[in-house]
Amino acid sequence: MLKRTIHLVLITLILLPILVLMMLSFGEQWIFPDVFPQNFNTKTWLKLFSSDSEISKSLGLSVLISLSVAFLSTLMAFVFSKVISTSKYKNQYIKLAYLPYILSPVVLGVLWHYFAVVLKLNASFFGVVLAQFLICFPFGFIILSSFWSRHIYDIQNLSFTLGASTYFSFKRIIFPLAKPILGLCFFQCFLISWFDYGLTQLIGGGQIKTLTLSVFNFIKEANIFLAAIASLLLLFPPLLLLFFNKKIKFKRSLINTH
Amino acid sequence: MNLKFTYTKLLRVIFLMLILLPTLAGFTYALLYSFGLTGLLSEGFTLKHWTETLSDFYAWKSIGFSLMIAMISVFISFWISLFLVLKLTKDFQKKWFHRLIFVPLCFPATVMALYVLQTFSKSGFFSRISYQLGFIDQIESFPELTNDAYGIGIMLTSVLMVFPFFTIYIKNIFDAEKLNEYQQLSQSLGASSLQTFWKISLPILWRKSKLTLMLYIIFVMGSYEVPLLLGRQNPQMITPRIVDKAQRFNLQDIPQAYAMALMYLGVVLILILVTSASFVQFFKRKSDA
Amino acid sequence: MRLELKNISKSFQQKPVLSSVNLQLNENQVISVLGKSGSGKTSLLKIIAGLEKPDSGDVFLNQKSILNKKVNQRQIVYLFQEALLFPHLNVFDNIAFGLQAQKVEATEIESRVKAILKEIALSDHSSKFPLQLSGGEKQRVAFARAIIIEPQVLLLDEPFGALDVETRENMQKLFLKLIKQYGISALFVTHDLKEALMIGDQIAKIDHGHLRTYQNKKDFIQDEKSGVKEEIDFWTKIQEFE
Q: Smallest Cβ distance to A102: which of B166, B212, B218?
């Protein structure tokens, strides 16, 4: 009985946000004290598919930025995690990589703003990608550092003694073995970028309108229906991956990477 | 071999630059600006901005408020998660449960804040339900849960976002540390389940997770979107306060924004140094090398 | 002579791990190297394989120094304590790995792998993955993967250490059979006296970085420090007790 109740509470707690957002996205006019909007229709959703809709532009931009950041961060993190893995001070390097997190990306954004202006990177696509990269890269590094274990080096050495060249060993052994964690790293970096508001707002100067910025703008304009749609679009990619890709799990998130 | 060694060294230096240079550069610039040594209105070295910031009651209040919100949120999340792990141990093997617990991790802070706003505000979903059920007779009677003086909305959002992480994390510790076996052992030695919890499970869990909990406190402390949507001007959390000051039209405020940012970073660093012995050791070892 | 070590020395952080080690291994010969953990045996094997560099001394393969040769060009296979099968490759691909690295033709690879699978009695398991194999089966695959490329020298670091007694005995027999069949020279490191005597044509002993090679097994058995005497004493006493 207790278990049942806990289940029920938990399911409500977790699924209610999605339901409320869905309700709002199909709604029109929601005047107090009505529990549900007066009308339900697909008008707001249809706007999304019109060619000049701001949301679809934001969606495209967000996808582009997040993919770039995730790709760049994962690639660099893979290279550098290998280089650092053989260091005596490996653990110290890893602790340093926590720095951008501990110091809050938004506060760093305030500090970086001047440099973005000097380097003419403010309000530009590349500026935002670079700023997000500087946050995602250390995080990716922390994730991928756990890959370069003694065991992996033993396996690699064994492949060398069996006559494999560095390239062959990488192609046949190291890369296939790293694939799951590379996928995880890519996905996590994608999400950090995808979810980011503060840094993009500060470095992009409001000019680089990603989906998260759209949500904010709609809320400011008190257009909760559009805000709800933009929110659902933000939820879509991670939810999709969660339900269709069994391999990628959030097991190593910020909390249990060390 | 030698070439490879040099190459590795070089890459390590590049790594340090990638990690430290942006942070240090920002840090240095903020330091110079806050002492009046650079910037649009710079008039040469002055302690004015620092004395103003350090004696600004509201700046300290913001830091204290942020710390309080973070600690309460992490504390509540921890107990919810622990409760779930203890009561629903077997459910974690079930696919539906596993997926369910991951769902909140798909929520950006902005979206979760929007949800809380639409659900818990005076004109929100729950307020309307309460009205229809006759619990309240006007919109004003619904308690203030968002943009409130105690940061309830912010804490609610933080808990909703943090507790799934903790649940998965605590469950992992339970499995990795074989806590169930220790519990059985303790009970076979005659301890009651309550004694087992306080003397065995909780201490082991605490030892393993305290660094993570601290990281999360810092993490929540630095949150920006959530207090921006669900907070108010006074008390205000520190991050939106810094950004507010930095982006004001009044140029006089900018040096203070930088001073405040540095003050916040200082508090965070002190927090880490005090809480984590391993960090202290880390800096000791570094200075030896 | 197949392999020759001359005055190999190595230290880690000023602590000597190997002190002028000399060793000669002939063609088709197996030398058992007896050593406890921390005796320097793993370092010795790693230096021969090229995974570590000695501080001084030289390693000769077929009378040529190989010290500056890359690991993958030495034709010396090092078998670790664990089987270390590539977890993402099935049994067939694990065994074929070395041949694929040498770009041997696919049809030839197939026939050679099939032949060796028969030898190790795992023909039915060729498409299984390492996770589906028992400890003994894994070791057999690891062993086949090494000898299929007919290495100049095979280095084995306690390969049967983790197996149960029965599997271990079977593996020892299989090892002896295949090593003769493929004409392989090998250094076999173990801490087990019986195993050393059973497998090696010759015995060497490594202790605190010093290596001593015995002329023949008789020399070894008669050496008071070999440990054989204690072993015999033990069994005699047990008998007297009864």
A: B218
Residues of B in contact with A101 (CB under 8 A): 215, 218-219
Report the CATH fold assignment for A55-256: MetI-like fold (1.10.3720)
Residue B91's CATH number:
1.10.3720.10
- Cβ within 8 Å, pair B219-A32: no
User: What is the rounded average pLDDT for all residues in chain B?
Assistant: 87
Cβ atoms of B29 and B115 closer than 8 Å = no
Which structural domain, as residue segments, surrounds residue B232? 71-236
Which residue, B74, B216, B73, is CA-closest to A255? B216
**CATH at C225:** 3.40.50.300
Give C97→chain A minimum CA distance, Å.
8
Interface touch A95/B279, C-beta < 8 Å: yes
Residues of chain A contacting C66 with CB distance shorter than 8 Å: none
Is B169 found in the same domain as B126?
A: yes
B224 inside 8 A of chain A by CB: yes
Residues of chain B with pLDDT under 70: 1, 276-289
Q: What integer pLDDT is reported at residue C238 of this predicted model?
A: 84
Helix (H) or strand (E) holding A177: helix A175-195
- pLDDT mean over A244-253: 49
B10 Cβ under 8 Å from any chain A Cβ: no
CB contact under 8 A, C74 and A161: yes
Nearest residue on chain B to A88, alpha-carbon basis:
B289
Last residue of a domain, one of B212, B236, B260: B236
The crossing angle, in degrees rounded to 10, of helices A90-97 and B2-34 is 30
Element holding A105 (H helix, E strand): helix A105-118
Same domain, B75 and B187: yes
CB C21 within 8 A of CB C5: yes
Could you tell me the pTM of the whole model? 0.87
Asked if residues A233 and B107 have their Cβ atoms less than 8 Å apart, the reply is no
Domain count, chain B: 2
Chain A contact for B265 (CB, 8 A cutoff): yes
* B179 Cα to chain A: minimum distance (Å): 17
Per-residue tokens: B204: 């082991």
Q: How far apart are the first and last CA of chain C?
A: 50
What is the reported pLDDT for B286? 47
Reported as a single tens digit per residue, the pLDDT across A62-117 is 999 999 999 999 999 999 999 999 898 998 999 889 888 888 889 899 889 889 98
Residues from C in contact with A at Cβ < 8 Å: 49-51, 70-80, 82, 84, 86-89, 97-98, 100-102, 145-146, 149
C107 in a structural domain: no
Inspect the interface and report whether the beta carbons of A159 and C97 lie closer than 8 Å.
yes
Assign residue C120 a region (left: φ > 0; alpha: ψ between -120 and 50; beta: otherwise). alpha
Sign of CA dihedral A240, A242, A247, A251: positive
Which residues in chain B are contacts of A235 at CB distance < 8 A? 106-108, 111
Per-residue pLDDT 10s for chain C (242 aa) are 789 999 999 998 888 899 999 999 999 999 999 988 888 888 999 999 999 999 999 999 999 999 999 999 999 999 888 889 999 999 999 999 999 999 999 999 999 999 999 999 999 999 999 999 998 899 999 999 999 999 999 999 988 888 888 888 899 999 999 988 888 999 999 988 889 988 999 999 998 889 988 888 888 888 877 777 888 888 888 887 76
C93, part of any domain: no
Q: Among A154, A165, A168, whose Cβ lies nearest the Cβ of C84?
A: A154
- Residue B36 within a domain: no
CA atoms of A105 and A197, how far apart (whole Å): 10
Residue A247 has pLDDT above 60, yes or no: no
Residues B230 and B157: beta-carbon distance below 8 Å: yes
Nearest residue in chain B measured CA to CA from A73: B18
Q: Render pLDDT for B60-115 as a digit per residue (tens, 0 to 9).
A: 999 999 999 999 999 999 999 999 998 888 888 888 888 888 888 889 999 999 99
pLDDT of residue B248: 79
Give the pLDDT of residue C165.
Answer: 87
Q: Does A48 touch chain C (CB under 8 A)?
A: no
- Give the DSSP H or E segment for A240: helix A224-244
